[in-house]
Amino acid sequence: MLDYFWLWSEMIVRWVHVIAGVAWIGSSFYFIALDLSLKPGKELPKEANGQAWQVHGGGFYNMVKYLVAPKKMPEELTWFKWEAYSTWISGMALMSLVYYGSASLYMIDLEVLDITQLQAVLLSLGGIVIGWIIYDGLCRSPLGKNDLILALAGLVFLVLLSFIYTEVFSHRGAFMQMGVTIGTMMVANVAMVIIPGQKKVVQ
User: What is the number of domains present in the chain?
Assistant: First the structure.
């Protein structure tokens, strides 16, 4: 009975993770397309950066982008953050159910490094946290003032991190560890940088 519970839990969480990830990526692509379609207009408020007219599902939408908060804010404001949060939460739940729960099978390769299941889990969690700290440090450092240099530094960091993970975990474990580390960097950036910055603008 317990085996069925874990199988169903894994399947449900896996699909939640997939759907949440699709929603997150989809909304990101939508806003990229929206930004590229913005056009200036004389009738727009001076704070507005541009507007786009769209049609979908039989309705028309007039999208106006403000680079700063308008003088009069609406009573309700939609925040695009839960797509990212739900992707990370479901991803970590899946990581815990599958990889942490069966670390000896999925994360440990005794020919790579002889470690216990607990050590594998702790190393994984530590790598995730350290990965975010280094990534955030790079972005806040003088390197962050130049997008190209920051991108190259980030690439070098990820390659180095990949090498370290392959020296600690099994090949499959290292692959998943890189995924959850990069995903955590992205979501933590939303939660700790982007959203707080937007809240300051709104206030």
Answer: 1
User: Is residue 36 included in any domain, yes or no?
Assistant: no
pLDDT for residue 1 is more than 80: no
The pairing of strands 59-66 and 48-56 is antiparallel
Q: Is 117 domain-assigned?
A: yes
Helix-helix angle 117-140:171-189, to 10 degrees: 40
Q: 10 Å Cβ neighbour count for 57? A: 5
40, amino acid identity: P
Size (the chain), residues? 203
Domain of residue 126, residue span: 81-202
| Residue 69 predicted with pLDDT over 90 | no
Beta bridge partners of 56: 59
Residue from 127, 138, 118 nearest 184 by CA? 127
**Phi, psi (rounded to 5 degrees) for 31:** -70, -30
pLDDT score at 70:
81
Residue 29 has pLDDT above 80, yes or no: yes
In a domain, residue 133? The reply is yes
Checking if the pLDDT of 74 tops 90, the result is no
Average predicted confidence (pLDDT) for the chain:
91
Are 34 and 63 in contact by the 8 Å Cβ rule? The answer is yes
Asked if residue 59 belongs to a domain, the reply is: no
Tell me if 48 sits within 8 A of 64, measured CB to CB: yes
Residue pair 86/20 in contact by the 8 Å Cβ criterion: yes
